[in-house]
Structures are given as structure tokens and as C-alpha cells.
Amino acid sequence: MKDNSSTLDVELFERWGPTYERSWMQQRLFDPVHAAVLQHAASYFQPANVLDIGCGSGRLLRKAHVYWPETHLLGVDPAQKMLEVARKLTPEAHFYQGSGEALPLEDASVDLALSTISFHHWHDQAAGVREVARVLRPGGYFLLADFTAPAWLTWLYPRVHSTAQMRALFEQAGLEVQAQPGPVARFVRITIGTRASK
């Protein structure tokens, strides 16, 4: 059975694709979150490859290219129109149509996975975090930045979690939570997890 809200989310981003880069939200919300995520990621290690889940128009990957010019860049997004823009603006990256719950990548193939302000659109968030854990190499990191809410308020927004709920999602997927810095911008917190080295 297809989740109607998830379908509507993808349809919204299909329509938004051609003008997404010009949205006021880029400078006000996405750019500060991207900067914080990349600064935290850079403090951990230099990845051989970076995956952006819910990559949209490729904006975060273009910034990652500045941090790590030799790093292999990968983007996954369910909206074809977003990917068309991403491929034009970010020729140094490889893009795939897909979702967080079904990443078109091999097991243990990613050093650093990122997701910024897209997690609340994922249909099955627990399955998505497990899927990220699957594609991470041992010792790899997942930095997820999304809206958070106090625990008493999350019942109103089922796809927005408290920091404790986000920690639980990571731990249930087998990821060790290293930190949860924030808030970044307003109501956005980063959860940093790693797949244990064997």
C-alpha cells in the first residue's frame, strides 16, 4: 500500500524542482544547516565518498566538494525534476533516483552519509535509518539534520521527533550516537551516528 503523504511530498518536490534553488529557504534555512553539518563532518574525518540522501538540487554536495575536492559525491532523491537540476548544477556528482528506505547502493559502500531537512518526508523513517546503516562502511558516519520537537509535542507531528526519539532510531539501527548538537537554525538538531568498526 502506497503512503499518500509520501506520494504528495514527492509530487510537491517534482513541481518545486525548477525553482528550488531560488527559494528564500535556501539562505534562511538550508545554507546554515548545510554549513553546520559539513563543519561537524569535517571534524571527524576525510571521507572517500559522501552520500546525500534527499539531495534535491545538489546544493549540499556542491558545498561538500569545496571541503573535499577529491571525494566521490553521490546523491539520492525520489523527485526526478530535482535530479535534473542537480545533474546540471553538480556535474562532479553521481545522482540516483531513490528513497532513504531503498538506497540504490551496495552494502558497506559509503564513508559519510548526510541528510538535511528531508527526514520528516521519509515514509518509513526507522527502515530508512536501517538502510543508511546497511550502506555505511564500518567506521562510517551518518549526520542527520532535521526538525526536532519536545517529546510532549511530537504526537502532533508523527514524522518529527524529539532528540531522545532520534537517538533511539539510530541505536535500533545499530548506529552509535556520538553527539546531537544544535539547535541549528530554528528547531533543527543534528544527530551524529557511526557504524561500529569491526
Can you offer a commentary on this structure?
It comes from Tengunoibacter tsumagoiensis. InterPro entries: Methyltransf_11 (IPR013216), Methyltransf_Superfamily (IPR050508), SAM-dependent_MTases_sf (IPR029063), UbiE/COQ5_MeTrFase_CS (IPR023576). This is Methyltransferase type 11 domain-containing protein. This protein has 198 residues and is an alpha/beta fold. The chain has a single domain, classed as Rossmann fold, CATH 3.40.50.150. It is built from six helices and seven strands. Strands 3-2-1-4-5-7-6 form a seven-stranded mixed beta sheet, sandwiched between helices. It is globular and about 35 Å long. It starts with a helix and ends with a strand. The model has no long low-confidence stretch (mean pLDDT 89).
